[in-house]
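FAQ: What does the model actually see?

It sees only this:
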Amino acid sequence: MKKTILLLILSIPLLQGCVPTMLAGAAAVGLVVYDNRSSKTILNDHNISYKAQNIINHDELLKNHSNIYVTSFNYTILLTGEVENDLLKKRAENLIKNIKGIKQIHNQVTIGPKISTAALSNDALITTKVKTELLKENGLETTQIKVITQNSTVYLMGLISKKDGDLAAEITRNINGVNKVVKVFEYVQ
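And it is asked to produce this:
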């Protein structure tokens, strides 16, 4: 029983974009949604994120002077978080740029102190609000949008039409607590 629970807990990160994914919550109980990325791409994105995060976390210069998060979607990397100076920001990007499969890197790491636990909790709340509001919009392919919030800045990633990307950004801009919206979309027809 303990092994089963541990296996389920360890597999949660792998389920973030799984095909099909079961959404939880009152608004979407039992609704099956699909990710347009292939299962190979989803797995590769997970592996790229893991490798990049591992490299950054084990770098002696970055380890104690940064707070960097790596997100990969369709082979595009988004770096968020905080570092003490511009040299460390560039170092993080340079350390991971040669990982096989990365198409591009969006380095959105900010220069400044690490954000507080309260700010991290607020970011989680903002992410939930954004996902909820996007789900309410009829016709918007929310399963193709990944929402990342860092210090009240919301990053929107995914495979989406320009029209839907603009709509998602506009909805997000109007949510209480959002300071800035950054689109990191790959536009499709």
